[in-house]
Amino acid sequence: MGSSGGGGGGGLTWKLADHPKLPKGKTVAVVVLDGWGEASPNPYNCIHVADTPTMDSLKNKGVPDRWRLVRAHGTAVGLPSDDDMGNSEVGHNALGAGRIFAQGAKLVDLALASGKIYEGEGFKYIKECFENGTLHLIGLLSDGGVHSRLDQLQLLLKGASEHGAKRIRVHILTDGRDVLDGTSVEFVETLENDLSKLREKGVDAKIASGGGRMYVTMDRYENDWGVVKRGWDAQVLGEAPYKFRNALEAVKKLREEANANDQYLPPFVIVDENGLAVGPILDGDAVVTFNFRADRMVMPAKAFEYEDFDKFDRVRFPKIHYAGMLQYDGELKLPSHYLVSPPEIERTSGEYLVHNGVQTFACTETVKFGHVTFFWNGNRSGYFNEEMEEYVEIPSDSGIPFNVQPKMKALEIAEKARDAILGGKFHQVRVNLPNGDMVGHTGDIEATIVACKAADDAVKMILDAIEQVGGIYVVSADHGNAEDMVKKNKKGEPLLDKNGNVQILTSHTLQPVSIMYSSCFLANHREIKDKGKSQNTCFDSWKWINYIVGQSPSSCGCLQLANRELLLGLLLGSSFSGLVILIENNLAALGLLDNACHTASHKRFKIMWLVIRPTINIIRSDCVNLVLGFVSQQFYGFASLHVPIAIGGPGLLPGVRFRKDVPDGGLANVAATVMNLHGFEAASDYEPTLIEVSDN
Ligand SMILES: O=C(O)[C@@H](CO)OP(=O)(O)O
Ligand SMILES: [Mn+2]
Ligand SMILES: [Mn+2]
C-alpha cells in the first residue's frame, strides 16, 4: 500500500501517498443510511416493502462490482461478541476511523473481569465518599449492549459493595429500544433480587428512581434538555410526578397507561412509608453513570460536572464525586473522572483528509448530528480545522416520537448536501439519513415504511447532484434496524405474544450493511419512472420473484410457465409449505388461490401467495398492494442478513470495482475505500480498502 500516515508513536506524518491510479479532486458524497440493513424480503422488512427505487437500482445495477455487503455488528466493529448487534457509535467510529477498536462494552468487560476497574483513579475518587455518603448508579437497565449491560451493573454493584460502599441507590432508565418493549419488568425483578441479596449482607441498597430512556435523562446532541431535567429532578431532587413504594410496582403500573412503553415511561421516585424519596443525591455522595456509550451521557455528565450551567435550573447543585463509566467526550475531557479509559480513537479519516487538503462538509439533523461529526471523528467534538470543515445541524423535531413525522428532516439534509456538492467548495460531503433507524426504533411498521421511502428520496437527490458535478458516491449504512421489525424464532418465524400479535422488534439487528456504487443507475432509474407508476410497481415486485426462485431472473421464466393447477395442487398437498408466486393475468385465479391458501393454512402449513400480473393495463398499484397486505398477515419471515455498500458516480473510473479478496469486510474497510476515492492511499494501519482498479 505504501502510504506514510500513522505508525503510532513518533514520526507521525499526516501526508497520505497519492493513489497510483485514482484521480484527486473529485467530489465524494458519503451517505450513511442509519439503521439500513440488508435482509431477505418479507413484510416485516420495511426497506423491502417501501418504495425505494434509488437504493434498489444501486443494488440491481451494482452487483457484484459496485454493490456488496459488509459486516456491521459484533467483533467486526469491536464489540465483545458476534451476538452483539451493531449500533451507531461503533458503526460510525469504524466508518470514520478505518480501524477496529475494542469498544466501551468490551473495555468495561475486561476491566470488571480483571478487577482493574477498582484500582483505577476513577473508582478511587468515588470511593472517597463511601464512608459517609451514598453511591448512586444511574444508567440504562438493559442487556441490549448498546449503551450498557445489566451484567456489568450487577458486577459493579457487587464490586462496589465489596470495596466499601454501604449505601447504594440505583436510578434506572428503562429501555424497550435495544430490547423488547416490556422487558423492563424482568430487568427490575432481577435487579431487585440482587439488591435484596446485598441487603442481606448489610448493604443498604435500593432502587431510588426511574423513567423511560427517551423521556428521562438520555437525550443527545442537545435535542431536548427537558429530558435531562426530568432525570435530574427525580435523581437529584427526589421529585417526580409519580411516586411508588417500589420499582416493580412503578414499572408495572406505569405500563398500564394507554400507549405506555418502556422507552417513554414517565419519571418516578421511590418513596418510604412517610412519602419521602429514598435516594435523592446529596452533598458528599458519589455518582456513577454506568452507561459506557457516550452520546446519550454527555448531556447528563455536563449537568453533574459543570459548575457553570444554564441549560435548566438545577435548583440544587450537590457537591458530589461524579465519574462516568467511561470518559464520554475526549475533546471536552468530560467527565474528568471515569472508571474505564475509553478507546483511543485517533488519526481518523476526517483528520487525515483535512491535512491533505480535502474540504469536508458534514450534515444531518440533531438526533444524529454527532454521528457524522463526534463519532466519525473518534468521539471528539469540534472541528479539526475550522477553515477546512463545515458541520451543519438541522434541528430535529423534539418532543414527539418519530413515527409521527417519519420523513424527519431527510429532505432538508439532502438539500443541504446537494447545495454543498453543487457549490463546489467541498470535496467530501458526508451525511447521515436517520429515518430507517429512528422510526424503526418506534416499532411502527407503517411509519417505518414511509421513513424508508423518505431516506430513499434523499439519496436520490444527493446522487443527482453528484451526477451533475461528475462526482462519486459511497452509500452505506451503520447497522441494521428497519429491515427487521419483528422478533423471530430460530427458524425465522415471527414470535407471537400472548394475545397472538407478532412481537415487534424495536432494536437494531445483526444484519450487515451494504456499500454500493454505480454511474449508470440514474439513467436506468429514470427510464423506469418515465414509464409510469404501474411499471414501477411491477419492477419492485420482481424482487420477490428473484428471491423465491433463487435470485436468478431466468428461473422466473420457469415459474411464469408453470401451470396454475399444478401450483394449486402443490399448495393443497400435505407436505408443501412456503411461498407461491403466480404470474397470472386472470383475475378469477385470485379467488381460487385465496381459497386454497385458507384450506391449506388449516393444515398448519405456512403458505402465502403473491400474484404478479405482467401486463401494464392489468396491474394496478392498489391491487398489488391489496395482495401484499394479505401477504403481510400470513407471512413468516426468513432469517439471514448484512448492510449494503455501493460506490459509483460519473466521476468514478470504469475499472473500479469491489475486491473479491476482502470477502468478510466490515465497516472499518470503508474509510480506506473513501480515501482512495479521494485519490489517496489510506494510512498503512487502516483496514484494507474494499476496491481495486483494473486496467480494463
Ligand atoms: O438511539 C440510540 O441511542 C441507539 C439505540 O440504543 O441507536 P443508534 O445506535 O442508531 O444511535
Ligand atoms: Mn445508527
Ligand atoms: Mn438506532
From TrEMBL:
GO biological process: glucose catabolic process; glycolytic process; response to blue light; response to carbon dioxide; stomatal movement
Recorded GO MF terms: manganese ion binding; phosphoglycerate mutase activity
Enzyme class: isomerase
UniProt EC number: 5.4.2.12
Pathway: Carbohydrate degradation; glycolysis; pyruvate from D-glyceraldehyde 3-phosphate: step 3/5
GO cellular component: cytoplasm
Superkingdom as given in the UniProt entry: Eukaryota
Keywords in alphabetical order: Glycolysis, Isomerase, Manganese, Metal-binding
Catalytic reaction equation(s): (2R)-2-phosphoglycerate = (2R)-3-phosphoglycerate
Family: Belongs to the BPG-independent phosphoglycerate mutase family.
Name of protein: phosphoglycerate mutase (2,3-diphosphoglycerate-independent)
Species in which this protein is naturally found: Camellia sinensis var. sinensis
